[in-house]
Structures are given as C-alpha cells and as structure tokens.
Amino acid sequence: MMMKTGTRPPPLIYGILALAVLSRWAMTDPDPLQDYCIANTTSSSSSMTMNEIPCINPASATASHFATSALSKPGNTGNRFGFNVTLANTANLPGLNTMGLTLARVDIAPQGVVPPHSHPRASEVTTCLKGYIHVGFVDASNRLYTQILRPGDSFVFPRGLIHYLYNSDYRTPALAMSGLNSQNPGTQIASLATFASNPEIPEQVLEKAFKITGQDIARIHNNLGGSWMEFSSQDDKSLLGRI
Ligand SMILES: *[C@@H]1O[C@H](CO)[C@@H](O)[C@H](O)[C@H]1NC(C)=O
Ligand SMILES: *[C@@H]1O[C@H](CO)[C@@H](O)[C@H](O)[C@H]1NC(C)=O
C-alpha cells in the first residue's frame, strides 16, 4: 500500500533531527581524556598521522610547558597586506595540546588589512588593544556585520564565516589579541584560495564566476603572486597564515 502523500513524521522527529544538526554545529575539538597532554613536538610519527600531537610523559611536566612569551613581540607587517599574525599554539605552548585553544597576536600596519578569510574549525573572539580596527564578517545570507573597535572592545567572528580586520588609520599601527576555540583552526584567505591556489583554478572557471576576462585574472595573479607560499599553512606547527 502506498503512503498517503500528506503523511508527515511526527514533530518529535523534527526536534531530534534539529538537535542532531545543532549539536554537530556546536562541536569543536575532541574533549581531552586527561588533565593535560603536553605536546611532544620532537616525537616523530612518520608512518601515521594523528588527530592530536602525542604527549610527553606527564612525570616530566613543568610549569614552563604551560607558559610562553611568543606574543610579546610584534610580527613584521612589511608584506603585501600589511599584517602579521603570531600564534601561541602547540608549537610554542605545548601545554595547549588537546585543550581546543589557540591564541593569536594580530599586528596591523597603518592602512594594513587582514584580508577576508575564514577558519573552518574555529570561532574567534578578538579584542582590540591598540589603535582603531574596522572589523566585519559576512553570514551565510551575505549580510555584513561590521564595527569599529577601540582599545578594550571585542568582536566575535562565528566559525567558518568570512571576516576581515582593517586598520584605516594612516599613522598608527593597530594591535589585537584573538582567542580561537580549536588548537588547529585552519585559515583560508578568500583571494588567495581563489586566485593564487596551487595549482591554479582553471581560467574559464574564474572568468565565468567573476564575469572577468583573462587579462583581469592575469593582473590579479600578478598582484597576489607568490603569496600562497608566504601565507599558506595546513598544520598547527607553522606560525604563519592561520588567521
Ligand atoms: C618525545 O618523543 C620521543 C620520540 O618518540 C621520545 O624519545 C621522547 O622521550 C619524548 N619526550 C618526552 C619528554 O617524553
Ligand atoms: C611575521 O613576522 C615574523 C617575525 O618578524 C616574520 O618572520 C614573518 O615572515 C612575518 N610573516 C609575514 C607573512 O609577513
């Protein structure tokens, strides 16, 4: 016998489905199974990859494993975008391993920009410490949320959404600190992922997607040239380009 076309599952089913979807969205890094798991950054795992970094023997733990001065110095902002991100992560703060955390120092030169980018594995909260920072993110309906942060002001960039930070001042460098809820948030800079990938996205695809010509593409390639190397990284051992 055929099901009546108007038949619907009871509302409870929708509730359970919605909960399943929401809890999936809320997921961050896996929960730790120990008080701490200080990263053994020298351990070589050539034949396998793991979701986290192996721990040292807990008997060898010291307070210094939980401390770093990595964020005390400004990064060099003399690159084509005028920003630098310095991370406190498992490479320089091994006690962070399995905690689902990354901290970032963001230096932005006058007129510098952290170009539109996203973190596939983390939400971010950023606090302006110096200067004025114009921040914004675009949600999945393409609505822009934007603010100007003064020292002490904070702003949230939801996980996976495209966002940017811009120092519109002509003289004063800006400084922000960001916390991210993953030990390996990942970063995709939209312009580089699109126009400076390796290998490149086929020209016909870019022409059609952006309604531009091969000349336009060549100019953009040229302007961004080489930046995919400068700003790319996959894993949490590198200190470059994850924001
Ligand atoms: C780190 O891993 C290496 C290689 O597996 C091991 O020899 C070393 O003892 C480990 N270090 C600590 C402090 O546990
Ligand atoms: C960020 O600053 C560090 C330290 O000055 C420098 O080694 C690195 O090349 C800079 N990164 C970029 C992308 O400019």
Automatic annotation (TrEMBL):
SMART domains: Cupin_1. One of its GO terms (molecular function) is manganese ion binding. Transmembrane segments: none annotated. It is found in: Secreted, Extracellular space, Apoplast. PROSITE patterns: GERMIN (PS00725). GO terms for biological process: plasmodesmata-mediated intercellular transport; regulation of root development. Keywords: Apoplast, Disulfide bond, Glycoprotein, Manganese, Metal-binding, Secreted, Signal. It comes from the Eukaryota. Residues 1-28 form the signal peptide. Oxalate binds at residues 119, 124. Disulfide bonds join 37-55. Residues 69-218 form the Cupin type-1 domain. The keyword Transmembrane does not apply. Mn(2+) binds at residues 117, 119, 124, 163. GO terms for cellular component: apoplast; plasmodesma. Belongs to the germin family. This is Germin-like protein. It comes from Trapa natans (Water chestnut).
